[in-house]
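Lab notebook: predicted structure, single chain.

Context: the supervisor wants predicted structures on file for every construct in the current expression panel, including those that have not yet been purified. This is the next one on the list. No modifications to the sequence; it matches the entry in the shared construct table.
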Amino acid sequence: MQSQQFAGANKINTSFLSPLERRLSPIILPRIPLWLQTYHLTMLTLAWSLLIMGFSYLAAADIRWLWGVSLMIFFQYVTDHYDGKVGKYRNTGLLRWGYYMDHLLDYVFLCSVIIGYAFILPEKSRYQLLFLLAVFAAFAVSAFLAFSSTDRLTISYLKLGPTEFRLALVVINTLLILFGTRHMISGLKYVNAGAVAGLCFVVYQTQKNIWQIDMKEKEREKTRTVAVAKTYAAHKELYVFTGISEPVTAVNPSKGIRVS
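Prediction complete. Output recorded below exactly as produced.
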């Protein structure tokens, strides 16, 4: 018997840039060197994350080092975006290992970016950065809890996904290089407020969808129970069903007969 495909192998991405990414994939995938395997691409996020923190540390003295951070963000996008696709294209993927390590290292990447900004911005901004990390981590927690409830892994919300997030980081770094950190310090509270508003919207929509799934399941269970009751109940005899889950047991009070 053929085993069921692991649901985590398929991601739902409806972001603005996802159509462009899908068009580029058939062009880029055949050109990736054969010695570069899917697990190599996944693990490279560790290297990019360490370099992001290193360049950010240097940027505290010379802000132009943020160009190096932006380059590492681009490299992380390439390896993270194509690691699973290489596995599918070559039929060499490690679905469950890839799901676990890929998302774990995405969190490592996020932490490296926030820690990097902590090197650059004044100490008074670190509480806001810590709050920002907590909010973005909550998006990931929500996505994984929703996946365990629905078997659907959604990685984009409001047409925004990981690619748009990385692009925003590159834009922020460019603005920091051109105009300094003063505007980012004052703008962090607005970023946090927007992130919280987005998180509340995502959580509301997610719990609403899961609620509807539960209600449909309850309705199907009720319909199934009624159908079983009609099957077991004889004409003009009273049966009381003691449970709604299988196996169903019926009791005829007048005769003391139990039917299972």
